[in-house]
Amino acid sequence: MWGIFSNHSFDDETVYDDDWILHASDQDYLPYFRTLNSLPDSTRMEGNCLHAGSGFGKNEMYPCFDEDITYGLAVLGLNITGKTFPTYLSTSGAVSEPQIRSGERPSQLTGAVTVTGLTGGSRYTIYRYDGTDTLPTSTASMAGYAHSHTFMATATHYVYTDPNIFLSSSAVYYVTTPAAASPHPTPLRATAIPKVPGLGLPLVSLGTGSGMHADVAAATELWVKVGGTAIDTAYVYGDEDAIAEGLANAGVPASSMYITTKIPCSTYADAKAHIASNLKDLKVSVVNLTLIHNPRCQGAASVSATWRALEEAKAAGQSVEIGVSNFVESDFETLKRTATVWPPVLNQCSMSVGYHDDATIKYCNSNKITYMSYSPLCGGPNGSSCQHGSVMDIPVVQQISKVHNVSSAQIALKWIVQQGIPLATAVANEQYAREDLDLWSWGDLSADEMKKLADAKLG
C-alpha cells in the first residue's frame, strides 16, 4: 500500500467511509484507488470484499480486512506545515517485488524525482528521508534527512535523478521546499572535534574499510563537506586512490586531513613496497600515521620485519607516526624484543558498547599507547560484519538516547570518545555523518550511564 488519503485533517483519528487508499495489485501491476468502506472481508479472508473483481485468485486483485478486526493502524504521512512543492518519484528496476519471506533479496532501485509548481530563478532543496521515524512535521526544521539536493529552477518543473540507491523493501520519501526555508545545518569545523593529546588525531575518523561505501570517493567528499578532518584506510582496502579523488573533488588538500593507513604483516621488502604504494595512491609524500594491520603473519612475513620498515618510513618522513592494529599484550611483548622505536603510538582494535577488550585497553594505557576503536557500532571480533548484532539494538543504548534526545548511534559513539578513545566509523548518508561528528554539543553522559553502557551485552 502506497498511501492513505483523506479530505479531513490527518490529525482527525476518525475513519471516514470516503477516505481512500492507493495500493498496487500483484495480478496486473496496476495502481488501484479504494475507499475504506470497500475493504471489509469475511474472517476467511477470501478476497471477496466489496468491488473485488471476478476471475481472480484469493487476495490477488484486492487486499481486504477481516470484518471482525476492531483496531486500526496509524500511518505516519507527510503532514508537513510550511511551503512544499508537488514531488513525484518514478523508479527503475524490477516490476515484481521479490519474495522476501522465501529468502529472495530486495531489489536495488534508483529513482527520478520530478518537482512541479516551481518559479524560474528560485532555489529549492529536495530532501530524501529513508524512513517514517525521521519525517519532519514542519519546513522550519528538516533535520533527519538521508540526502539532500539543492538546485536553481529554470522552468516550472525539475527532474532530479537520485544517485543513491534504495531497496524495494524500504520506505523512501522526498520533500521539496524553498532552499531558504530549510538551510543545511552548519558543518562542524575541525576546532569542534577534540583531538588525542600529543598525537593530533581527531577523535572521529571516517573509516573506509567496512564495505558500506559503494563509492569511497563520494563518501570522502561527503565527510569533508560535513566537517570531518580524519580518514582511516589501509593497503588491503584498495580505496586509497578513491580517497585522493574524493579530497580533490571536495577542493581540499590531503595535508588538511589526518590520514591513517595500514600495511599487512609482510616481509621487509614487501612492507617497503606497501608503504610506497599507499603514498602513491593517496597522492601524498607523507601520511600522519601508518599501522601494522594485523600481527597474524603468513609464510616468511614477520611483525619485526614489517615494524623495521615502518621505523624507516618514520625516519624518512613518510609517516609522522607509526603504530599497530589488532594487537594484544603478547603481540606487544614479542614486538618489543626487536623494536627500535617503542612504544607504538596507537593500537586500533574492534571496540563497541557490548564488546571491549578491557585487558588490552589497560595494557595500552599503562604503556602510553593510544587505544583506538574500529567497528564502534557493530560489536565483536569481526565487528564490521555486525554478525554479533548492532549496538543500536541494545535496549540500554536506546533508553539513554531518548534521555539525551539524540540517536542511538550517537550514544554508542559518545561512550567511546568520552573515555578519550578515538574511533573510525563508516557513514551511510549525510545526516548520519553529521550525527557522528556531533558528539559534544549536547553534553556528557553521566557516570551511571557510562557504567550501564560498559556493562551492556550484545544480543
- Proportion in β-strands: 15-25%
User: What is the averaged pLDDT score?
Assistant: 83
Morphology: elongated
- What is the alpha-carbon Rg in Å? 27 Å
The stretches of 5 or more residues where confidence is low (pLDDT under 50) are 69-76, 181-191
- Helical segment count: 10
Let me know the number of strands: 19
Elements, N to C (H/E): EEEEEEEEEEEEHEHEHEHEHEHEHHEHH
CATH architecture of the largest domain: Alpha-Beta Barrel
Distance between the termini: 33 Å
Q: Give the full name of the CATH homologous superfamily of the largest domain.
A: NADP-dependent oxidoreductase domain
The secondary structure category is alpha/beta
Main sheet: strand order: 12-13-14-15-16-17-18-19
Counting copies of identical and different chains, the oligomeric state is: single chain
Count of the domains = 3
Q: What is the helix content?
A: 10-25%
What does this structure look like?
This protein is an alpha/beta fold. The protein folds into three domains: 1-41 and 60-74, no CATH class; 76-181, no CATH class; 204-455, Alpha-Beta Barrel (TIM Barrel), CATH 3.20.20. Helices cover 22% and strands 22% of the residues. It is built from ten helices and 19 strands. The protein has an eight-stranded parallel beta barrel with strand order 12-13-14-15-16-17-18-19, surrounded by four helices. A three-stranded antiparallel sheet has the order 1-2-3, with no helix packed on it. A three-stranded antiparallel sheet has the order 6-7-10, with no helix packed on it. α6 links the parallel β17 (346-350) and β18 (370-374). Residues 69-76 and 181-191 have low confidence and may be disordered. Residues 213-454 form the NADP-dependent oxidoreductase domain. Pfam families: Aldo_ket_red. GO terms for molecular function: oxidoreductase activity.
